[in-house]
Amino acid sequence: MGAKTDIHFNSAEFLTQLQQRHTNAISRLVQSYTEPLFKASLGLGFDSSTADELVQRVWTTFFDVVPKFEGRSHIRTFLFGILYNKALELRREEKNLAKSDPIEETMESRFSDDGHWSLPPIDPEQFLVKSQMAGIIKECIDFLPLTQRMAFCLKEIDDKGSSDICKILEVSNTNLGVLLFRARNRLRECIEKKTKLEN
Amino acid sequence: MLTCKDLVREIAESENLSFFKRAEIRTHLLMCKHCSAYAKHLKYMREGFKQLFSNITQTDPEQIKKIEDQVLKRFDKTEGDS
Questions:
Q1: CB neighbours of residue A52 within 10 Å
Q2: Which of A17, A38, A165, A195 has the most B C-beta neighbours within 10 Å, making it the best mutation to test the interface with B?
Q3: Best CA proximity match to B41, nearest among A105, A134, A126, A197
Q4: Does any CB of chain B come closer than 8 Å to the CB of residue A181?
Q5: In whole angstroms, what is the distance from residue A113 CA to residue A110 CA?
Q6: Distance (Å, rounded) from C-alpha A123 to C-alpha B37?
Q7: How far is CA B55 from the centre of its chain?
Q8: Chain A residues touching B31 at Cβ < 8 A
Q9: Mean pLDDT across B9-29
Q10: What's the average model confidence in pLDDT over B67-71?
Q11: What is the CATH number assigned to the segment(s) A103-198?
Q12: Per-position pLDDT tens, chain A of length 199
């Protein structure tokens, strides 16, 4: 999906066709976004058939709500927002930002009162051996709560701007920061632990 | 003065850092071995995750086509009903 299609999908004309559920407009949209949605579902850790089911649900919901879609955000942002909600539904997870997360305590214990490291991170040379990188990250990322994982994926992969990610996840900019802090540190702690075990 | 703990918070949240803040972070990283190790970990994670993501999201065009067809068929059906 290139930048050109994106601009086109945002035109007022296309929007009107969508709201009126023109078959032509709908099928162009389906053909442009089914693959990105499917890939994102796989990236969130759903297996192929669950990802299939998830994408179907996203489109079904989209068809229901499209007459009311006003184009305030980009159609892609809107679709990914639906994906996020359907994924939560599938995982039956709490969507609100949990008040506490054990990673916050872990991070506290890594620093002394003056803010210096008391338990410093390990030597980067040992942190991730390139050949095992993808495997270790896969094991560790599966431990992340869905919301953290989605925040991390969108940030690292899609080059989506923060304001887009906030809209998709329905969180404030501050909360997105908290999600990323927790996701990255959970991942880092997990990888560090596994690397130590293997050395 | 930015402490290590502050720095870790800043770079892990990485939201809209000002030019001044980024300069402050860069200076700290030059002087601090532990924080520079931490920053490298995040960088390796980012690279590793991109690699992982492209590994697990390799899709078969036919499979995508099949899903698209199912979606459109369902859409046509709802159109027929309404």
A1: 18
A2: A38
A3: A126
A4: yes
A5: 10
A6: 6
A7: 15
A8: none
A9: 88
A10: 93
A11: 1.10.10.10
A12: 444 455 578 788 888 888 888 888 999 999 999 999 999 999 998 989 889 999 999 999 999 999 888 888 889 999 999 999 999 888 875 555 667 788 999 999 999 999 999 999 998 888 877 667 778 898 899 899 999 999 999 998 877 788 899 999 999 988 999 999 999 999 999 999 988 877 6
Q: Which domain, by its residues, includes B40? A: 4-81
**In this complex, do B41 and A56 lie within 8 Å of one another by their Cβ atoms?**
no
Q: Could A56 and B67 be called an inter-chain contact, meaning their C-beta atoms sit closer than 8 Å?
A: yes
**A3-94: CATH number:** 1.10.1740.10
Q: What are the residues of chain B with a beta carbon less than 8 Å away from any beta carbon of chain A?
A: 3-6, 8-9, 12-16, 33-35, 37-38, 40-42, 44-53, 55-57, 59, 63-64, 67-68, 70-72, 74-76, 78-79
**Closest-CA residue to A107 (of A180, A193, A181):** A181
Locate the domains of chain A by residue range. Answer: 3-94, 103-198
B15 DSSP assignment? -
Closest-CA residue of chain B to A55? B67
Task: Please name the member of B5, B15, B74 whose beta carbon is closest to the beta carbon of A60.
Answer: B74
A150 Cα distance to chain centroid: 2
Best mutation site among B7, B11, B13 for testing chain A: the one with the most A CBs within 10 Å?
B13
pLDDT score of A93? 59
- Whether ipTM > 0.85 holds is yes
Number of domains forming the structure of chain B: 1
